[in-house]
Write a structure and sequence with these properties.
The chain is mainly alpha-helical. It has helices spanning 3-30, 45-72, 77-104. The chain has one domain (3-94).
Length: 109
């Protein structure tokens, strides 16, 4: 495995782990699951605060909604695969940003 492929895989894993931690932390505090409905509460400070949260929590929310829809609504395989690719790419981007931030802060070498 090349170093670039290993770095990409590590970014995807970190992105999904960060998304899962954020969503589970939100659910523990708010006593309700996080979702994209947080953006539909009108123009308010908490709506603007939800944007950065959803940027990093989106891969987990996408996969949770996709897997739930697959069981409940019997969604087609193509839709599930497309959502998985989108969530994976999003996770890779957020994981890369998170790792770059840690490197810039001097936490990682």
């Amino acid at each position: 495995m090349t170093p670039e492929a290993l770095n990409t895989f590590f970014s995807i894993c970190i992105g999904f782990a960060l998304a899962g931690a954020l969503v589970n932390g939100y659910q523990a505090v708010a006593q309700r699951p996080a979702g994209f409905g947080l953006l539909q509460e009108g123009v308010a400070p908490k709506t603007f605060a939800a944007v950065p949260f959803l940027v990093f929590a989106a891969p987990f929310i996408i996969m949770r909604n996709t897997l739930r829809g697959m069981r409940v609504e019997s969604r087609r395989f193509e839709f599930v695969m497309m959502a998985t690719v989108i969530a994976g790419f999003w996770s890779m981007m957020s994981g890369t940003f998170f790792l770059m931030t840690l490197r810039a802060a001097g936490v990682l070498a």
